[in-house]
Amino acid sequence: MTIVKHTVHLNLKGVSEKNIMDMDVVIAPLKDCTGFGILSYGGLMKAHDNDDMKKGLNQNFTHSFEMIFSTIAHLDYYLPHVGHMAVVSELVNLGLNTEDKKNICAIDVDSRLPRALAQYYFSQFKTNHRCNRIKDALNHIEDKVLQSEAENQLSQIANRYLSEKNISPAEKRFWENL
Predict the structure, then answer these.
(1) Rounded mean pLDDT of 133-153?
(2) Under the phi-then-psi rule, with left for phi > 0, alpha for psi from -120 to 50, and beta for the rest, what region is 139?
(3) Other C-beta atoms within 10 Å of 138: how many?
(4) What whole-number distance in Å separates Cα of residue 104 and Cα of residue 91?
């Protein structure tokens, strides 16, 4: 079972900080829309001003965000949906220039479910303590076949990480306490 990471890079040069913050406020509610199957939205993030940016390796993209969809079918439903189109329209109103394709880049990548779930739920634990353990979070998956597959694969991943010699104490605690 795979999930899909939908990563969008934006060139927001010349857009005010207030409008950029408003863009994040406009995008965030999409994760709560029924039918989209969005597991997470990481927020609109500014690119680091580092050597890659100075060399132009970022292709002038200044910000990005990532959404994780539960299936490719959910992403396919989301992209042409009127809710998604309304958000894009609002982003244009806030200053995103979609006429020039050099200002926006979207990449969709299939990802294995357990690794992505582990990262997602661990980040949720670190940021807002919504769950104490990944296994507790997996109990919220309604599809029991998917839940069982995820639990089995997470156990295999945990055992693999715990067998590594160079694992940090924090990582060891994390994988022991799934």
Answers:
(1) 63
(2) alpha
(3) 20
(4) 12
Banded pLDDT at 122 (limits 50, 70, 90): low
Q: Where are the beta strands (DSSP E) in the chain?
A: 2-10, 38-41, 45-46, 63-69, 104-112
Distance CA(33)–CA(90), nearest Å, equals: 17
The C-alpha atoms of residue 29 and residue 120 are separated, in whole angstroms, by 18
Measure the CA–CA gap between 113 and 119, rounded to whole angstroms: 10
- The label of the residue with tokens 């779930």 reads 117
Token pair 């990262």 is at which residue?
119
Tokens at 174, concatenated: 């994390």
Q: Are 77 and 34 in contact (CB under 8 A)?
A: no
Amino acid 73 reads A
pLDDT in tens, 95-116: 988 888 888 888 888 765 555 5
